[in-house]
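Obj.: predict assembly geometry.
Materials: sequence records (below).
Method: joint structure prediction, all chains together.
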Amino acid sequence: MAFPKKVIIREVGPREGMQIEEAPVSTENKIRIVDMISECNFPVIEVTSFVSPKWVPKMADAEKVAAGFKRYPETEYQCVYLNAKGIERAQATGKFDLEGVLQITASETFSVKNTNLTIDETFTKMDERICTLNEFNIPVHTIAVMTAFGCTYEGDTNPELVIQLIERSIAKANSFGENPKHILLGDTVGWANPISTEMLVGKVQDRWPEKDIILHLHDTRGMGMANAYVGLKMGVTHYDSSVGGLGGCPFSGAKGAAGNIATEDLVHMCHELGISTGIDLEKLLKVTEKIEGILGRELPSKVSKGRSLNSYRRIASN
Amino acid sequence: MAFPKKVIIREVGPREGMQIEEAPVSTENKIRIVDMISECNFPVIEVTSFVSPKWVPKMADAEKVAAGFKRYPETEYQCVYLNAKGIERAQATGKFDLEGVLQITASETFSVKNTNLTIDETFTKMDERICTLNEFNIPVHTIAVMTAFGCTYEGDTNPELVIQLIERSIAKANSFGENPKHILLGDTVGWANPISTEMLVGKVQDRWPEKDIILHLHDTRGMGMANAYVGLKMGVTHYDSSVGGLGGCPFSGAKGAAGNIATEDLVHMCHELGISTGIDLEKLLKVTEKIEGILGRELPSKVSKGRSLNSYRRIASN
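Observations (raw structure tokens):
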């Protein structure tokens, strides 16, 4: 139970936020947003999704966004893809650092609704996924568990089930000679609370002390920052968040429900706790302001609203 | 370090929120808001301020609000007053449970700007305050430290200074035969972080284990809920919050800056952590919706936005 010295924050707003945003955002503005974020010195940015435009029409311009944004040397650029076709499209752009993710959903109902596959079917398909990754020479980097803490259909997820799902996924990966280094715990619809966060993170740390946990938190029920604090306190070093708190609650139909935790609030809290992020907070607050202008709506992050207080300034020296 | 079984949440929205709200709210609506909140079974509601309408014009209708709202037998109704005149006005309404508060501000600059008194001058005037309370037979109930964690003018408050200010205030009270039972730690402009919260709460608990701490938290920099979690984890039993997160950042001039932590988010988190509040969350979420209608703006609380998810429902049995 000790704060890490440094954390890796992955900005997922351009992908996860833009996918959900109601108002259409032009390709030009999407590119502008990625470039502005890059200028803040993020270690990782998730830029777009190479998925079927039939299912995710807002990502239909993935190639154009990829062609347009500027790669910064210190930043890793990621994208989402679901199959060989997606990998081919992403690789063709030459702009991405492709990483292999094996995704599994802990809630059976959510799994079927979101992926059309039961949990067992997901494991059956996992062989194919790993083979495809192997074909493209993409190592399996991450086991990602969606609804790892619970969902609106089934309530709390049993943490023991999550451990089993990770075990099975790692065993699959190992059987192909792969050894994923990261375990992503996805609080997909913001179901985690500080107790369940502590419990699941603790169990994963005990079982796989050598692997890095990525906490993917949503703020749907207002506990995102408290959960992030618990993660920090337990030494978790990887977090997903979205600039301004872009996005919403996926697949829930809850209009106005909060999205990912806001990057600037997370960055600010890390700096307050003496944890380095490498991210330029002052620049980031200006990015939020510009994105609010592009979207024509206020974003929910708090530090950005208090910025005229200059209250974030004192941490600039961290 | 253990969660309390039950906490007392004081709803401060009708006073602290209405004082800051930009759009004028009619007296009728103010009364309606207090009554709706009462129906949710709050232990304590801060209704209004009996202060000079010259300084706080939004509270000029304090008598009318007092005359109009309905007292519920299980609820304690509080109000703010600064002098004998205020007490007389509040007492004349016959609607309030008057409690004696000795207020001190830890930041010299903030103290002068907000009260026109230095810290030393505040102590000089404290004799008069206690005499006035005595005259009206109001016991000294609470020592309240504003900007206990810091402010935008002076940055972090030294927790040792806060301990000294509380010491001096209690000594003053004792010299008049008074023994305040509560210590309010006011994070007036949302400066606290989880580390400073833990440090100051710990010091106050160590020094006065027999007294109850009231945590008055703002969410200006997005850490309000994380700070509340730290307080809960340390066994703090009293919290101030505002329905929907009404209000803003006082005296800061930061337009749009977040106000008090949102009551429903706090209530929900408590229930998630197995801590009882006695408050009817489902009713409260409907109150937020109605207040949003009255104000014509969205309030920042998160649980209220996700309410179509019914994600709060499962805790109804707690």
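Conclusions so far: The first helix of chain A runs from residue 13 to 20.
To do: check interface contacts against the pulldown list.
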